C-alpha cells in the first residue's frame, strides 16, 4: 500500500492505471484518433473501471489531486496565446459573452424539463444533473438537497466525457481530415528551445498563479491564475517560450486517467440511466451550440469551431485542453468557459429554490 496525500493506494492499482493510460494513448495514436493522449486513457482506464478490475485488493484508483499539479500547464500554455492581436480582438467578443448569459439558463431549464418528463428523475437530481457547468458544485449542491448521488455523479461526469470524446471526433469528420495537433499542427512557440530563464519564469508563473488563483477565490483558480501571470509575462516580453509539447501530452494522460477511474464503483444501473440521459442532453446542447456558433461566429471574428467549443457543456479544463490541442482560439474558449461556470453555478443555486416551489405548487 502506498500513501499519497494521506490516502492509501494499492501499488498494483496505480501501476495498472498508468499502464492502461499509456497503452490507450499509444493505441489511439496508432489508430489516429483526435487527442490520442486524452482519448486513449479515458477509454481504456474507463472500460477497465466499468468492468470492475481489481488489483492488490483495490479497484482502479488514482489520486485526483495529482491532476491539480498538471492543470497549471494548461493555464501557462493558454497565457502564452495572448498577443497584442488577441488582446485587440477581445473587444469583439461581447456578443457571444452576452449570449452566454441567456444561453446557460435556457439550456439548464430545457435539460431539466427533459429529465423530469422523459428521464423520470426527482426534482433535485433532474435540476443538478442538468447543470451545464460546475461539476463539483453541482454534485455538492445536489447531495445537500437530496439528489440521487449515483445518478447525479454519473450524469455530470458523463457530460464531460461525452464532450471530450466526441467533439474532437466530430470536428475531424466535419473538416474531413485530422485537425489541430492531430494533423501535425503544434502550439505557437511550443517547439522553440526553452531557455533556463524561460523555464524558471514558466515554473514561477505556474506555482504563483496556482497559489494566487486558488487562495483568492478566482473561478477555476488552478487554471485561471497561471493564465493571468503567463499572459502578463508574454505580453510584457519577459517570457517568449511555451511549455514543451511533452508537458501538454503528459497533462492529457494524467487528466484522462483521473477521469477514467471515476467509473470505478458506479452501479451499472445508474451508469446506463445516466448515459442515456447525458448522451441525449449533450447531443441536443451541441446541436444548439452549433446553431449559435453559425450566427455568432461572423460577429465575434472567430471560427464556428471556436464558438461551438465555447458553448459546449464540457469542463473548463477539458475544453481548454481540447482548444489548445486542436489549435482553436484557446483564449477565446477559456474566457467563455470561465463565464459559463460562474453563470451555471449562480443559476444552479438560485434556480433550485424557484423550481422546488414551482414543483411543490404543481
From TrEMBL:
InterPro entries: AbrB_fam. The keyword Transmembrane applies. One of its GO terms (biological process) is regulation of gene expression. The chain crosses the membrane at residues 37-57, 69-87, 93-115, 151-174, 194-213, 277-300, 306-326. It comes from the Bacteria. Keywords: Membrane, Transmembrane, Transmembrane helix. Pfam families: AbrB (PF05145). GO terms for cellular component: membrane. This is AbrB family transcriptional regulator.
Amino acid at each position: 500500500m502506498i500513501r499519497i496525500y494521506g490516502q492509501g493506494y494499492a501499488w498494483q492499482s496505480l501501476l495498472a492505471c498508468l499502464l492502461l493510460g499509456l497503452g490507450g494513448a499509444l493505441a489511439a495514436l496508432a489508430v489516429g484518433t483526435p487527442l490520442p493522449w486524452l482519448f486513449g486513457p479515458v477509454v481504456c482506464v474507463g472500460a477497465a473501471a466499468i468492468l470492475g478490475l481489481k488489483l492488490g485488493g483495490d479497484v482502479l484508483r488514482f489520486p485526483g489531486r495529482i491532476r491539480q499539479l498538471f492543470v497549471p500547464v494548461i493555464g501557462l500554455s493558454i497565457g502564452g496565446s495572448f498577443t497584442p492581436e488577441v488582446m485587440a480582438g477581445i473587444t469583439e467578443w461581447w456578443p457571444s459573452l452576452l449570449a452566454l448569459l441567456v444561453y446557460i439558463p435556457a439550456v439548464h431549464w430545457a435539460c431539466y424539463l427533459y429529465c423530469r418528463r422523459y428521464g423520470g428523475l426527482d426534482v433535485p437530481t433532474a435540476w443538478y444533473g442538468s447543470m451545464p457547468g460546475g461539476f463539483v458544485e453541482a454534485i455538492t449542491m445536489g447531495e445537500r438537497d437530496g439528489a440521487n448521488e449515483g445518478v447525479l455523479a454519473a450524469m455530470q461526469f458523463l457530460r464531460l466525457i461525452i464532450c471530450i470524446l466526441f467533439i474532437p471526433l466530430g470536428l475531424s469528420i466535419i473538416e474531413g481530415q485530422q485537425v489541430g495537433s492531430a494533423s501535425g499542427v503544434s502550439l505557437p512557440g511550443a517547439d522553440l528551445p526553452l531557455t533556463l530563464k524561460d523555464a524558471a519564469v514558466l515554473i514561477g508563473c505556474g506555482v504563483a498563479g496556482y497559489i494566487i488563483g486558488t487562495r483568492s477565490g478566482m473561478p477555476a483558480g488552478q487554471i485561471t491564475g497561471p493564465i493571468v501571470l503567463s499572459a502578463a509575462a508574454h505580453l510584457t516580453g519577459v517570457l517568449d517560450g511555451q511549455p514543451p509539447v511533452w508537458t501538454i501530452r503528459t497533462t492529457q494522460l494524467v487528466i484522462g486517467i483521473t477521469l477514467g477511474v471515476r467509473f470505478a464503483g458506479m452501479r451499472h444501473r445508474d451508469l446506463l440511466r445516466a448515459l442515456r440521459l447525458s448522451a441525449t442532453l449533450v447531443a441536443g446542447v451541441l446541436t444548439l451550440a452549433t446553431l449559435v456558433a453559425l450566427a455568432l461566429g461572423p460577429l465575434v471574428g472567430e471560427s464556428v469551431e471556436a464558438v461551438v467549443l465555447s458553448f459546449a457543456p464540457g469542463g473548463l479544463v477539458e475544453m481548454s485542453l481540447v482548444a489548445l490541442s486542436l489549435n482553436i482560439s484557446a483564449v477565446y474558449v477559456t474566457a467563455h468557459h470561465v463565464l459559463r461556470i460562474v453563470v451555471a453555478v449562480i443559476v444552479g443555486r438560485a434556480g433550485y429554490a424557484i423550481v422546488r416551489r414551482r414543483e411543490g405548487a404543481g
